Amino acid sequence: MSIPKEPRQLMINLMYLVLTAMLALSASAEIFNAFFKLDKGNIKSGQIVTSSNGEIKKIIDKQADTYKTDENKAYKQKADQVISMANDFNQYIEDLRNRLIEESGGVDEETNLPVGYKDQSVPTRILVGMDPSDDSEGMKLKAKIDEVRAQLLGLVDEKDRASFESALPLKTEPIPEKTEKKNWADYNFYQMPVAAVLPMLSKFQVDAKSSATALLNYFLNKVKGETIVMDKYNVVAKAPKGYLLEGQKYTAEIFLSAYSSQVKNMTIKVDGKSLPVKDGKAQFSETAGRIGTHKHTVAITLTNPLTGKAETTKGEFAYEVGQKSVAVAADKMNVFYVGVDNPVTVSAAGIETSKLKVSAPGLGIKKTGKSSYVVHPTRPMKEAYIIVTGGDKPVKKKFRVKKIPDPVPMMGTGPTARGGRIGSGTMKAQPGIRAELVGFDFDARCKIQGYEFTYQKKRQDPVPIIVKGERFSPQAKRMVMAAKPGDVYYFDKIKARCPGDKAGRPIGSMVFKIK
Hints:
By secondary structure, this protein is α+β, with helices and mostly antiparallel strands. The chain is 33% helix and 27% strand. The chain has four domains: 12-222; 232-321, Sandwich (Immunoglobulin-like); 325-402, Immunoglobulin-like (Sandwich); 408-514, no CATH class. Strands 18, 20, 21, 22, 23 and 24 form a six-stranded mixed sheet that branches. A four-stranded antiparallel sheet has the order 4-3-7-8, with no helix packed on it.
C-alpha cells in the first residue's frame, strides 16, 4: 500500500484507521462484558442448584430413615457420595479459577473484576503449557471431569445406566478430527483470555451440580416405603380395671401410641358398630348403665395405600360403673403454702356440683370454678383438712401447711449468678440483687429487705456499708462502678421477705471476684 502524497488524503486515511481501531476496542469491551455476565450467571445458577440439591437430599434422608431397609440405606449412602463428589469437584474448579485470577494480577478492588482479564498468556501457560502436553493443568482438568462423570454413572443401577449416559451434562467433548491443535486443552484454552476461561470453568461447576441433581432425583424415586408413616403420638395407659375400691392395687401398662393423622382408608368398629374417623382417631361414648364391668371389642381395619393390602387389628377395653364418690386433690402437692393461692380440685362422680359443700376450717377457701377452689392459709399448720359433704358420707382430706421455702440470693444471670469470678463490665451492669424461689411452682415473689455490702479493692482494706432493698444505693453503685480486676464484693446478712412472712428471713451470702 502506497502512502498518499496529498496531505488531505493522508489525513482521511489516518482518520479511517483511528475509527476502525475505536470500533474494535468498543466491540472488545462488549465481548468481555458478556463474558463477565455469563460467568456471574453460571455462579448464580450453581447456587440455586446447590440449594435444590440440599432439599432433595433432606427428603431422601427422611424417607430412608422412615422406611428402614437395606436398599434404602444404600441409596441414602449413594446420595451422600453424590453430594460429596459435587462439592469436591466444585472446590477443585474454584482453586483453578483463583489461581488464574491471582497469576494474572488479582482482583480490582473497585470493579471486583480480574485485573488481567485480557491476559492470554496466563491461561495458555497454566492450562496448555508452552509446548502442549498431556501433563498440563488443562489435561488434568479433562481427566478430572471424565473421572467424576464415570464415578457418578457408577452409582446408578446397572440396568438404568444407559439412560443416564445422555442425562449427565458433566462431560468433555472430543476435539474435531481436522484441527492443528495437539490435544483437548490446546483446543479449548490456547491464547484464550482470562475473562473467557472463567465462564468455561464455572459452567463445568454448574454441570457437576446439575449431574448431581439428576442422580439425587433418581435415588429419591428409588427410596420408597411399604408402610404408612405414623406422624402423631399419644401416651396411653392400659389398665386391667377402670375402677378400684379403697385398698386395691392399681397396675397399668404405659406406652407411646403412634398413629397417622393423614390416613383416609381406615375403619374403626366397637362391638361391630362403625365410628366416624377424624385425623386418624375415633371417639367412643355411651351412658353408663348398671353397676359393674362393661367390656367392648374393637376392630380397626387399615388399607395400605402403597400395597393395597387391608389388615385388621382387634382388641378389648373395659370400664366399671360404681357408686357415687367424692375426691379432693391438690393441684400442686399435699402441702399448702402460707401467703399464696393453693389451687384445689374437688371432683364428684355421680353427684351434682351444686349439691357439694366444701369447707376448710382455719385455712380460708374460695371457689373459683365449677370444681376448682383456692386455699389461702395465713399461718403454718401441722394438720389441716378440707371437708366435702353432699355425697353418701363426708370426705375429709388431710394436708400440711408450710412456709414458702427460703429463696436463693442472686445477682445477674448464668452460672455466676450465685457468686464467683465475673468481668468488671458485668459487675458494673448490675442494678442490685434479688431473691429467687428456685423450683417453687407457685406464683410468688420474695423481696430483698436489705444486706451488708462490702467492697474490697485489691490489696486494700474492705469498706462495708448497709443497703436497704434490692437495688444498689447511690453509695453502693459508686463502689460497683469502681470495679477492677482483683477487687472483691461481699454480700452478707442478706434478708428477704416472702408472702406470708411477718418479718424478713436470712437467706445466705454471696461473693464476687472481678477477673
